[in-house]
Protein 1
Amino acid sequence: MRVLKETQDDKDVVCHYMERVLHCIFFLGHINKPKISPDKFLPDGQYEPFKAHFPKAFVEYDTHLPRFGPYSILLEYMVNYLKPESPVSLLNKLVAINKSLWIFEDGNTGPSSNDFMASVVAYCCVKDPDSTEVPKMVYGCSMSCKGSVQKEIMIGVSALHVWDRAISYAVYSEDHGPITFPEHVHCYAYNFNTQRAMRPCNNCVKMFVVNFHPEHQAQCHDEKWPYGNCAENESLSRLLQSDQDVRKDICIVGDNGEKLSGREEIEDMFKEKYEETTDKKVRERLAERKFKVGEELIFFTPSYSI
Ligand SMILES: [Zn+2]
């Protein structure tokens, strides 16, 4: 990421996000098999300067967890500080960044920036039919890490510590009743690979009843990615965390449209059925990859606060 403006505040903002991105990438390198050490991610001559500038990221990647993947952190920066006027302007900026490769590549042998790019960005909003105001979009991206174990860990950590619990329940309960959103919630997705709007996958329509744009089209194959990988999870989770009306109105409905479970019951079901097993699995996977797991899972806090 480049320093876009010259004030100290802006530099601190960029450093805050850069520090989180570096820590997250080093963490993902550490739990990769084989391990990839921090120096492999930095171009020649840059290891020491980066370490001097962001020392915490270089020592806490095997003891502290990231809350978000690298591309999610970039997306958060873009949304909060560059304040895109519309999804189109944000997507155009992201396409430009994707092309410019914000991680350095080490010839053909080292890790590639592609390993940390998300292929899909989703955005959702509440459209009040009686209002002429442009609805506020809430963004999310797909899991920006490679490897099934890395994804399993990041999805588990997200479900336990980051996402709204209704999203966590949807991800782990799979086919046991989708979460139904209020009728005015709309969800969109864009795929960078095809450079087109993207329909929700089979997993997403099993997890969520919401106005998807474009609509779902039935496919007879299973998805190649796990539940929880999709950009829709992060975007819908952020909507639930930012909009109390939507948050309290989600539910699970039966075949005849009757309400089976409300918000509190859904949270309880995640806690009772999935929380403990997910926590145990995440700890096991982390320990297998030589991440130092203490009594509590600890999260990375950047030294540049904003
Ligand atoms: Zn999906």
Note: Residues 42 and 50 are 8 Å apart (CA to CA).
Protein 2
Amino acid sequence: MGSSSSTMFLEIFVKYLHFICVFGVVSAVVSEHLLLKSELSRKEISRLSRIDAVYGLSALVLLGAGLALWFVVGKPASYYSHNWVFHLKLTLFAIVGLLSIYPTVFFIKQRKGDAHQMIQVPKGVILCIRMELLILTIMPFLAVLMAKGIGYFGN
Ligand code: HEM
């Protein structure tokens, strides 16, 4: 009994962590979207870079919690490994990660120097953030589908 209730607690904790990190990722990307303009001071870029660090950290812990839900707690790993909706969710997560590279590199490169100097923001930076937001709205839908077993193709 003791070990099964601690396993249950671990599962609840990992699911909670998964949710909190989704909030972290989404709130960081929404904040970046709201703060981005076609021209920004280095000071503003430095602030965006700190928000971007919140995104990066949340995404890493989200990945860790997701891997734990896949391989350690909850349903058996094959429940997810043999589900194409889950693989689509993973692919979208990877695409969001790739899309975030360009904005991250821009923020890091441009944050240092004269705090009041104005910098032109490339259109691609804003476009990447917008595409991240779009993809992020699809992911919870895929998650609830796969949790129900929709997309399972057996072994
Ligand atoms: C932005 C990224 C992500 C979002 C928005 C997201 C969203 C969600 C949501 C809403 C659930 C709850 C589903 C439910 O209980 O009905 C969930 C569960 C889950 N997620 Fe994610 N997730 C993300 C990333 C990941 C990653 C990267 C992985 C794997 C490495 C992962 C693996 C899982 C697993 C295994 C579950 C458990 C599903 C179940 O209860 O059967 N997630 N996710």
Note: The CA atoms of residues 89 and 140 lie 9 Å apart.
